[in-house]
Design brief:
CATH topology of one domain: Helicase, Ruva Protein, domain 3
Number of strands: 2
Strand order of the largest sheet: 1-2
Structural class: mainly alpha
Mean pLDDT: 83
Radius of gyration: 25 Å
Keywords: Ribonucleoprotein, Ribosomal protein, RNA-binding, rRNA-binding, tRNA-binding
Largest sheet: 2 strands, antiparallel
GO molecular function: rRNA binding; structural constituent of ribosome; tRNA binding
CATH architecture of one domain: Orthogonal Bundle
Shape: elongated
Helix content: 40-55%
Strand content: under 5%
Low-confidence stretches: 15-20, 25-31
Protein name: Small ribosomal subunit protein uS13
Subunit structure: Part of the 30S ribosomal subunit. Forms a loose heterodimer with protein S19. Forms two bridges to the 50S subunit in the 70S ribosome.
Distance between the termini: 71 Å
GO cellular component, one term: cytosol
Number of helices: 8
Oligomer: single chain
Length: about 160
């Protein structure tokens, strides 16, 4: 039997509380839950213009332009789109944008080219320092990494 103290704790913290139905539950119960997949990325069930930003290389402005070109309401949820609308979005992205793997490889090749020609920016990339003229005496922790302890000057 459950002790009275344990029962009070479970009621207090809501351990047996009712959970809300999610889209996954609806799919199990006969609904048509699916996650849209564009450019190899599973997009969440949010507004179209927000969901498209989950794709590497598509910003909010790009997402709004895609919605404009495909004549899709940006406030529509991703799961409410039919296959024709998803196909239209895929076509626009494939034709006009470099996304995901293609974009990542292009950026990596650009950085490698800068390093190979030995220019200032390439040297900064190689050393792991800020490239665009930021100060490094203080700050620049994101690029330089965690602080390295240096022995103090002896008296």
């Amino acid at each position: 039997m459950i002790s009275a103290r344990l029962l009070n704790v479970t009621v207090l913290y809501g351990l047996f509380a009712q959970t809300r139905n999610t889209n996954r539950d609806k799919a199990v119960n006969g609904g048509n839950w699916r996650m849209a997949r564009i450019a190899g990325v599973d997009l969440p069930n949010k507004h179209v213009n927000v969901s498209l930003t989950y794709i590497y290389g598509i910003s909010t402005s790009s997402a709004n332009k895609i919605c404009e070109k495909t004549k899709i309401n940006p406030m529509k949820k991703m799961n409410d789109l039919d296959e024709a609308e998803l196909a239209a979005i895929r076509d626009v992205i494939d034709k006009e944008y470099k996304v995901e793997g293609r974009l990542r490889t292009e950026v990596a090749l650009n950085i490698k080219r800068l390093q190979d020609i030995g220019c200032y920016r390439g040297q900064r990339h190689r050393k792991g320092l800020p490239v665009r003229g930021q100060r490094t005496r203080t700050n620049a922790r994101t690029r330089k990494g965690k602080k390295k302890t240096v022995a103090g000057k002896k008296k």
